[in-house]
Here is the input.
Amino acid sequence: MPRVVSKNSEKTDNHLVNVLQIKDAKAGRVRITLIDYDESNLVEKEITHIQECKVFREKQTVTWINVDGIHKLDIIDDLGRIFDLHPLILESITTKNQRPKIEDFGNYIFVILKMLHYDEKHARVNGEQVSIVLGHNFVLSFQESKGEVFNPIRGWIRNNKGKIRKMGADYLMYSLIDAVVDNYFVILERLGEKIECLEEALVNNPKPETLGIIHRIKKDMIFMRKSVWPLREVIAALERIGSPLIRKSTQLYLKDVYDHTIQVIDTIEESRDMLSGMTDIYLSSLSNRLNEVMKVLTVIATIFIPLTFITGVYGMNFRYMPELESRLGYPGAWLVMLLIAIIMLIYFRRRKWV
Amino acid sequence: MPRVVSKNSEKTDNHLVNVLQIKDAKAGRVRITLIDYDESNLVEKEITHIQECKVFREKQTVTWINVDGIHKLDIIDDLGRIFDLHPLILESITTKNQRPKIEDFGNYIFVILKMLHYDEKHARVNGEQVSIVLGHNFVLSFQESKGEVFNPIRGWIRNNKGKIRKMGADYLMYSLIDAVVDNYFVILERLGEKIECLEEALVNNPKPETLGIIHRIKKDMIFMRKSVWPLREVIAALERIGSPLIRKSTQLYLKDVYDHTIQVIDTIEESRDMLSGMTDIYLSSLSNRLNEVMKVLTVIATIFIPLTFITGVYGMNFRYMPELESRLGYPGAWLVMLLIAIIMLIYFRRRKWV
Amino acid sequence: MPRVVSKNSEKTDNHLVNVLQIKDAKAGRVRITLIDYDESNLVEKEITHIQECKVFREKQTVTWINVDGIHKLDIIDDLGRIFDLHPLILESITTKNQRPKIEDFGNYIFVILKMLHYDEKHARVNGEQVSIVLGHNFVLSFQESKGEVFNPIRGWIRNNKGKIRKMGADYLMYSLIDAVVDNYFVILERLGEKIECLEEALVNNPKPETLGIIHRIKKDMIFMRKSVWPLREVIAALERIGSPLIRKSTQLYLKDVYDHTIQVIDTIEESRDMLSGMTDIYLSSLSNRLNEVMKVLTVIATIFIPLTFITGVYGMNFRYMPELESRLGYPGAWLVMLLIAIIMLIYFRRRKWV
Amino acid sequence: MPRVVSKNSEKTDNHLVNVLQIKDAKAGRVRITLIDYDESNLVEKEITHIQECKVFREKQTVTWINVDGIHKLDIIDDLGRIFDLHPLILESITTKNQRPKIEDFGNYIFVILKMLHYDEKHARVNGEQVSIVLGHNFVLSFQESKGEVFNPIRGWIRNNKGKIRKMGADYLMYSLIDAVVDNYFVILERLGEKIECLEEALVNNPKPETLGIIHRIKKDMIFMRKSVWPLREVIAALERIGSPLIRKSTQLYLKDVYDHTIQVIDTIEESRDMLSGMTDIYLSSLSNRLNEVMKVLTVIATIFIPLTFITGVYGMNFRYMPELESRLGYPGAWLVMLLIAIIMLIYFRRRKWV
Amino acid sequence: MPRVVSKNSEKTDNHLVNVLQIKDAKAGRVRITLIDYDESNLVEKEITHIQECKVFREKQTVTWINVDGIHKLDIIDDLGRIFDLHPLILESITTKNQRPKIEDFGNYIFVILKMLHYDEKHARVNGEQVSIVLGHNFVLSFQESKGEVFNPIRGWIRNNKGKIRKMGADYLMYSLIDAVVDNYFVILERLGEKIECLEEALVNNPKPETLGIIHRIKKDMIFMRKSVWPLREVIAALERIGSPLIRKSTQLYLKDVYDHTIQVIDTIEESRDMLSGMTDIYLSSLSNRLNEVMKVLTVIATIFIPLTFITGVYGMNFRYMPELESRLGYPGAWLVMLLIAIIMLIYFRRRKWV
Here is the structure.
């Protein structure tokens, strides 16, 4: 029943809160593409009437239907009816910001994952929900908006590159998941570069903004972990699930993606450790600079305050001050002041303040 | 035997300490409502004499009795006798601030959960205990005070919306739990908005109060986690329990609520990470401002202290001071002072303090 | 062989170190009370000669022997011989500061727990070891000193209140454990009140002592956790142990105590989270106050240091200083100084330091 | 093949790095003592020729051979040949700084543990490796250097105290392990006393060295945990291993040692929590003292800087300054200065700085 | 499909990001060496044509082929064809920066591990991927570049030292892994020495760079943990895997390496604890120094500011100032100033600032 909640949560765009919202893409058109292939044949078309899909369902060839845009509930519902999907699945597909999960319904397997993009403009990581249904000889995939992550796979199918045309629908699903996970590495690399820049900036020229940027990257890392951590379980479940829909030969490939998700998680944890170490360095560099400032003030003040006192003494207007009358008074005063200054400087040099 | 303890703990209203107390709602009336339905029939009434419930127990229709107010022990006891509840359950229902838990007594299942409200006035999250008993064809629900969270469910039953009228008592219990969990998202969203505001305030204008507000939200998050964490286990147990009271078809829905509780927990952990990052930023902004203040003081002081020393020198009253007699004395002094000031400024500019 | 160690560790009274010591109660008398009951009969007496217990062992009534004071090894040894206890148990009973544990010897079960007291005078939590032996129709309990926690249970037995007289020795043991656990809530409440006071003090008037008090409460929380955490496992083991000494009906009650220990642990963890948040607030309030102090110093110093320089200039004794001769010199100097002061104040107002 | 590494790691004496080194005791003699006993007979002798041991191996009495010094590889090898030990064991015995572990070779069990000493001179905890081989009717024990921890056991055997002479080789091994674990408590007590001293020092008179001492104790705690944590698993394995070499009656005693190791671990964790709390207190006391220092400076400076400005004003040499001529000028100036000082003091009193 | 990603990630050399890249060794030649041995025979040669290996595969002697350089994909492919390796393995071998893992393909076992080097020039730990394939009577090993870690093993085989010539291919694989793990200890020792140096530096002369070095070592520790942690699981799996390729006698040796990896992990965790303690000490030493600086400033300023005020008073030019005319005026002023200075010094001495 999450749809109830979702209505009043549309306004905010925060990672934390938008847990169940349905945010309609503005004026978004839903685009449905179909690729139907086996080793020797290939059909690729854009679907305009959802009932066109029906024919392909019966065929023994692998059918991949990709839906860009999940805001038109009626289209999803129609597709669900053609492929006999449970209503809860249709609800899951159209409810954004769900946790990656897998559900095995016997004659099809339903997987939700998170595709991530690095938004260079706002310097933050964005997420998009991808739902995949694997059935007998068909794969349905749903994206929130048109993306480019699946394009290489389309290319391999078109050009019969690699073994994708020789394998079944399960290998196609593996390829989709693998494309999503590979994309995580691209983002990690982008964030890693930013961390490296920050590390250099910390040493050479720490600024008040630095901590804000560290915090921003930390948030991105938390967001990524939230996406990848459950994905690990999802892929492990896919491997173990023992469904007839997933062949033995594909399991080996799934184990490979599994290893990649572990690597992503390792890298995220590593970065978080590193980032908290950087916070310490930043805070200590602030202290160091305060120390520097205070040393300058202290050195100047402690040298000149006693000297000024002496000038004050001989600026007094008492009638009877023997020193004032003496010829040696003025040079003597200078001598005393010089001595004081030198002693002070020696003291500061010993303490390594100068 | 917790009732022994509870008596002397009524005075305090602290999350930490009121673990077992019974705090009587002031002058609270107990309100009992009964809804009895199947697909075609519906009876809805307010119960004044507890014995009225007896008739409905025997009927094959689904009976939902909701009790608002748990401070009148005799009413709970009477109800317990009608539905054959174990004395320990009755004690649990009337003892506030219990940990969410599930107990399977064979012919009925007993569940305790925590309903949360965001109290805008005191800007804090409050909790209320909800106890649910699921038996054969009946559901009993107990709330500490009259709330509105279950109203949509009443509406669906009245208007025969969704499939609730077609399903059994187990689906009704699922709906109640789902309503409670969905409400958590509303609160998380409210807290998320506050965190977002704080983040902006931290960057633009950090104030001493900020850390207090962060601490307040942290406390709310700890309080929520304490409520949701055991709930996760409760729902998992409900799924696995294998009780004949819970049908196969409902288990799928329970899995859905389970996923939602995980999402709530994820979001809480995420927020806590974020909040502790914000504490760091706040502390560093304090240091930064101290640095700013000290720099201003140091620049002003280190420029003027030497100059004042020079004026002090020529304010001395020695009889024999050759400079004083010279026509160039006064402009010369100004020149020296200007030079010192300029050298100092160049030094500070190099250090980027000006 | 812990007795070897214990001898040279008597001097210290520290939570950390007194892990195995036997600290003789000063001039303590051992007091042994016996209560023997079934539903209709009740014998209550103070034992002076340990052999009096023998008669009660044979009877089919429930016999509860409570020993206050564990420093007289011969008494414990005699009792052990009458009830056929293993030497390791006798050693455990007389060795203070053991970890809560359970051991099942077949014909009796041995449990060690920790009774806690809040010592208002030293404002700290103290612990006392309680050992319980549950055998067929008898319960032996050993306390370090005379306490009042078991008094309500004595009252219930005497006045035949509740079902305790109808139940067996296992229910008696449950009641003793429950009394100990309920007492934890009282202490948590006391500590919770102190935390609440501290929180207010932190906001209104933080003092150097505050952190000391936070540390003190943290230590108490660590001490409590050390006592309660293993108790949780002990009670879980009691539930699962499948001993014929523990009836089915009592297991339900044990589950209830188990839930309470979990709640105690939750509350302890919650408090610790809260306390570490409070340390942050305290430290930041120190920084805030330093900032305040420094701002005042900086404002005063940066306004008056330039002004004092100007007065210094016109206090110089150069013979040729045109300004000194002018009628407008003095008011002009005032004007310049006022201007400087105003500009400074505007600058500080902009920076929000005034 | 760790011997390869060990050669070039002899120079350092750091807990962290000396993981596999063999550090020859300087000019150390290897001392081998043999005790052979049953309930009625006792032979105790120092072994000079390793072949003397052979006779005792065949006897049905319990034979305990203790080797002080593990740097003479040939002696260990000879002994290994007599008792049929696997080469890997001999390597383990002579390789220092191994992790506590247990290995069951069927006809003998091999255990490595860590004996700890508190080195009062350097105020640090040192470790020494103890290897124990339990076979049928024999126990071999290997220490790095001559220690006193096993002396009480020798005493019990000589004087037939306790049941050690009545029990088998397994009980002897238990006694050795128990002696090692009991010694941990002595060290914990010593460290606990130091922590208590530190706590008082923190409150009354924190010094820069304090944090160094805290760090030193933390290191010791980490070192102890590294020794005790795997020991826990070793003893648990000994209990569970189901080897015919360990009798049922001894298992009860092993459970007792197991409980003690848990207690040691608990105490270590407790101490570490406490120590990190103390670091916070120390850091805050530094801040507090800085605040104190700054308040004194600020109060003195802000009171006298304006006053000095006023004296500066009337120290100017303008020809036309009406106040200077007035009889009330001087007392008036004093009045103004007193007023300013009083206003400042009231302001500081309000802010609680004075 | 990681090869897709790897192409555009070649530019960076960061631990964090280079997760899947293939970085071609500059102008690197691939060097293939073959050692074929049994107890009595030994063939050692450098392979120039990959087909030479074919003959050795059929022989019953142990064949070890080591490949230095993994950037020539065709060579790896050829080798793969000769030894019937799965394409996924070949991809894993040539993809750098993989997580240590093990895969059992029935007739061969595939292991990836991480060899570490301490790069003295950049003062950082570098990693290199080592892949090992264990088949029936053959071992293939792949390194990124020519290293020296396997040289001792080559020596043992050549000189028939130890039992390596008497054992099978599984013992050879064990020896390779053992060499890699032993090398970890060398690096830990190097890092341990650096930590020891840092600890001394922290106490005697903390510098701003210190925290940077701590951060650097922390990063190395995180990097090592990332390499060793999964290796632990790999070796545990090797032990448990029950493959006919690994003999019983070798399992004992694998358990030994396993213990070593645990020790490495323990030491890494220990170091990390120590390093974070050192950060605290560093930060507190900064505070201490600030305190020192501020005390000097405060003492000098608070002594001389009041004195300067007094000289200011008697430097005023009021016509009517009785003190100025008195003979005792000047010495009296000195007396007052001396008194003030002495009182101040006593006050500071009491506060232990002097």
